[in-house]
Amino acid sequence: MTVRLDATDRNILSELQADASQSLEEIARKVGSSKTPVWNRIKKLRGAGVIKQDTVILDPEALGLEACFFVLVRTSEHEADWQQRFLSTLKARPEVMEAHRLAGDIDYILKVRVTNARAYDEFYQALISEVRIFNVTALLSMEEIKSTTVLPL
């Protein structure tokens, strides 16, 4: 269900997306309001599920996670128990940054962050030992051109 947002809500969300560590006073000043109305709007947006969580974005390369692989998974298994086991396996693997079920020839795409190709191979070996997969194709990202968590408002 889509939540109705006015211009002030959108401005508050834009400020939070840019830097959630800003004080209420800073956000209020930037959106042309005062602290209490901004706080009430933020509470409303949290309650409506628009704001899911506050977090910190880390630099993967600064932490030694220099390899980013996009993993294309094709399966011949589509039973509920296989799918549950596969999803549980993905959720348990910290290397998996994102996982999407797709329409088309590829069933799933994973974004996997690891230190290097050897670490990817360890991930791959663990994955196929836990769940039967028909075909896996790994694509190494040579350069990250754009990455953002900011949604267009």
TrEMBL record:
<dbReference type="InterPro" id="IPR019888">
    <property type="entry name" value="Tscrpt_reg_AsnC-like"/>
</dbReference>
<dbReference type="InterPro" id="IPR011008">
    <property type="entry name" value="Dimeric_a/b-barrel"/>
</dbReference>
<dbReference type="GO" id="GO:0005829">
    <property type="term" value="C:cytosol"/>
</dbReference>
<dbReference type="GO" id="GO:0043200">
    <property type="term" value="P:response to amino acid"/>
</dbReference>
<dbReference type="GO" id="GO:0006355">
    <property type="term" value="P:regulation of DNA-templated transcription"/>
</dbReference>
<feature type="domain" description="HTH asnC-type">
    <location>
        <begin position="5"/>
        <end position="66"/>
    </location>
</feature>
<dbReference type="GO" id="GO:0043565">
    <property type="term" value="F:sequence-specific DNA binding"/>
</dbReference>
<dbReference type="InterPro" id="IPR019887">
    <property type="entry name" value="Tscrpt_reg_AsnC/Lrp_C"/>
</dbReference>
<keyword id="KW-0805">Transcription regulation</keyword>
<dbReference type="InterPro" id="IPR019885">
    <property type="entry name" value="Tscrpt_reg_HTH_AsnC-type_CS"/>
</dbReference>
<dbReference type="InterPro" id="IPR000485">
    <property type="entry name" value="AsnC-type_HTH_dom"/>
</dbReference>
<dbReference type="Pfam" id="PF01037">
    <property type="entry name" value="AsnC_trans_reg"/>
</dbReference>
<dbReference type="InterPro" id="IPR011991">
    <property type="entry name" value="ArsR-like_HTH"/>
</dbReference>
<keyword id="KW-0238">DNA-binding</keyword>
<keyword id="KW-0804">Transcription</keyword>
<dbReference type="InterPro" id="IPR036390">
    <property type="entry name" value="WH_DNA-bd_sf"/>
</dbReference>
<dbReference type="InterPro" id="IPR036388">
    <property type="entry name" value="WH-like_DNA-bd_sf"/>
</dbReference>
<protein>
    <submittedName>
        <fullName>ArsR family transcriptional regulator</fullName>
    </submittedName>
</protein>
<dbReference type="Pfam" id="PF13404">
    <property type="entry name" value="HTH_AsnC-type"/>
</dbReference>
